[in-house]
Amino acid sequence: MSSEKGNVHYLLGVKPEDSHVKSHASRTADEECAYMIPTLLDLAKSVPKLRLLDVGCGPGSITCGLARLVPGAEVVGLDMSETVLEAARMEANSQGVTNVNHRCIAHLQHHVSAINELARVSRKGGGRLCMREGILPTFMWYPLNPTLDEAWRAIMAAYEANGALTDAGRRLKAWAVEAGVLRETICVHGRIMVLRYTGAPEALGAAWPARVSEGSLAERVVDIGAASRERLTEYAEAWRQWIDDEDGLFMLMHGQVIARF
Ligand SMILES: C[S@@+](CC[C@H](N)C(=O)[O-])C[C@H]1O[C@@H](n2cnc3c(N)ncnc32)[C@H](O)[C@@H]1O
Predict the structure, then answer these.
(1) Helix or strand or coil: residue 248?
(2) What are the E-state strand segments in the chain?
(3) Best mutation site among 14, 26, 57, 85 for ligand 1 pocket (most ligand atoms within 8 Å of CB)
(4) Judgement on whether residues 132 and 227 belong to the same structural domain of the protein
(5) What is the pLDDT of residues 57-66, one digit of tens each?
(6) How far apart are CA 220 and CA 44, in angstroms?
(7) Residue 75 covered by a domain
(8) Does the CB atom of residue 14 touch ligand 1 within 6 A?
(9) How many structural domains is the chain composed of?
(10) 208-257, pLDDT tens digit by residue?
(11) Which Pfam family, any one of them, does this sequence belong to (predicted)?
(12) Ligand 1, closest atom to CA 32?
């Protein structure tokens, strides 16, 4: 069932040493799941044996944060990569979080059928389905930098060449409806992700020069002719300068939905 190759859509690497996996490991439930935490806490009060599935849990820092919020719940982190799940298990152990398990799932190749299955599972016991995705074309840099604009467009082109949609966040409600979820049970939220100067090397932005110049995403950018290898080096350098700029800012919209059954 498991694979380290990933599916056709998921272009980023899945090893704990991959730059973006490191950056995901610094994410927190409070920040990333603010839209669904009130719903989760309400459910924890009313559902005696609450079960929470974190699908695409990655290295698991968010899963641990959610598990700590609902210590009486059984939490399961699912991912397609055994390697990243190993990192997630270590994270749970190091944090002393005991109500979380991690399992590998078969690839979810098609979004509507995946949502249909997640809705089927969530429906049991009157649960909720909470989903969040980025809307990559909404990117915004400060300071203005045409090289970074170009780099971001090259990344989006690589995703699209791999059959992925870069604007999934704005489609979540429509996909849920297509998957059979009743429109009136769906609540739509939005969030703006903000990356800013922190001065800390492990900060989210620090992963990006490597992400754009080496690894599977960078290879794909070159393969499809969106940029030359030399240009990738320039993207990385522009990104480094942005990271070091105390006034630097990157913003991106996310779509978030909650369906109640
Ligand atoms: C962008 S990371 C997010 C990790 C974490 N939820 C976070 O927000 O920091 C996406 C994760 O989903 C997993 N993933 C992507 N596509 C998948 C699929 N089709 N089936 C299962 N897991 C998938 C990847 O392995 C990766 O760990």
Answers:
(1) coil
(2) 51-55, 74-79, 100-104, 128-134, 140-142, 186-196, 249-260
(3) 57
(4) yes
(5) 999 999 999 9
(6) 43
(7) yes
(8) yes
(9) 2
(10) 888 899 988 999 999 999 999 999 999 999 999 998 899 999 999 999 99
(11) Methyltransf_31
(12) 8
- According to DSSP, the residues that pair with 259 across neighbouring strands are 129, 186
**Token reading at 47:** 């559902």
Is there an atom of ligand 1 within 6 Å of 18 CB? no
**227 vs 124, higher pLDDT:** 227
pLDDT in tens, 134-185: 999 999 999 999 999 999 999 999 999 998 899 999 999 999 999 999 999 9
Q: Is 84 in the pocket of ligand 1 (CB under 6 A)?
A: yes
Structural domain of 67: 1-109
Assign 3-class secondary structure to 160-189.
HHCCCCCCHHHCHHHHHHHCCCCHHHEEEE
Residue with tokens 């966040």: 169
Which value, in Å, is the radius of gyration of the alpha carbons in the chain?
Answer: 19
Q: Are residues 248 and 118 in contact, defined by beta-carbon separation less than 8 angstroms? A: no
